[in-house]
C-alpha cells in the first residue's frame, strides 16, 4: 500500500516565507533558518521544525537568510538596506552591514570569516567579519538587481544570479567575471551543491543542472508549472521543486521521471531545500508557513512515527507554535 506524505507544518511567520537554509550536521543535530517578509527570521531544529528563536532587529522584509556550517552564526539580508550577522546560539545581533539598497542574498565562506552579499544596487560585496570596520571588497558588473550570490569552488569563486537574466561566475582574486550564462527570462533560484560541483537553477518552468565550474549544461527538466525553487538531494538521487501551482514535485535525477507531487501549501512555493542528511526537504510559501516533507515516506524519522499493525499510516505529532521571543 502506498504511503501518504504527511508534512509537518511550522507556523509562526505572519507574511510570505521567501528563503530557507539548513546548517551542516552538528553534535546537536542540524538547524533551519527562514527568511520572511514579516522581518523576523526564525531558527528551528531542522529535523522536527521545532521553533528555537526569532532574530529581532530588522525594520523591513527579510529576503535572504543563511547559517554557517556549525550553526553558530546566522546572516540575514533585508529591505531595510542592511545585512546582519547574528550569534545563532544566543540570538544576539553581532554586526549590521549598511548597504545602499535592498539586500537580497547572504552567504558565508566555509570558515565563516567572510560574508558575501548581493542585492538591488547590483554590486557584490565581500565583508571580512574579523575587520567589521573595514570597507568591503566590491564587485560591480551586473546591470540589474542581484537575486542570489553564493561561494563556490572552495570559496575561490562566486556565483551570482541577477534580474539582468544572467548568471555569472567570478574569480575571487581578480574579481573579474570568468563565465556568464544568459537566459531568455530571469532566473528564479540558484543552489550550489559542492559535492559534485553542481549548480541547480530554475527559470520559468525549467529546472536546469550545470557544472558549477565550467557552466556547461548537464541536463534540464520541464515542470508542469512555473518553478520558483529546486533542490538536489545530497546523494544526487532525487531533486525536488516547488512553484506557482502550490505543489511540491519530486523527480528522479538520473531518469528525470516525476516520482511524486504533493499539494500542501495554500499559496505559491517560494523556496525548497533538502536537509543535509537528505531525510527531508523543507518548503516555504506565500501562505506564511514552512513545511517539512519526508524523502522516504513512511520512515520513522524526527516527528514521523511509522506504525505498521495492519494498515500502514503515518502519525504526525504537532510542532511547537512559536511565541515571539528573542532567541
UniProtKB/TrEMBL annotation:
One of its GO terms (cellular component) is SMN complex. One of its GO terms (biological process) is spliceosomal snRNP assembly. The keyword RNA-binding does not apply. InterPro entries: WD40/YVTN_repeat-like_dom_sf, WD40_PAC1, WD40_repeat_dom_sf, WD40_rpt. Gene3D superfamilies: YVTN repeat-like/Quinoprotein amine dehydrogenase. SMART domains: WD40. PANTHER family: EUKARYOTIC TRANSLATION INITIATION FACTOR 3 SUBUNIT I, SERINE-THREONINE KINASE RECEPTOR-ASSOCIATED PROTEIN. WD repeats lie at residues 55-96, 96-137, 139-180, 262-294. It holds the Pfam family WD40. It comes from Myripristis murdjan. This is Serine-threonine kinase receptor-associated protein. Transmembrane segments: none annotated.
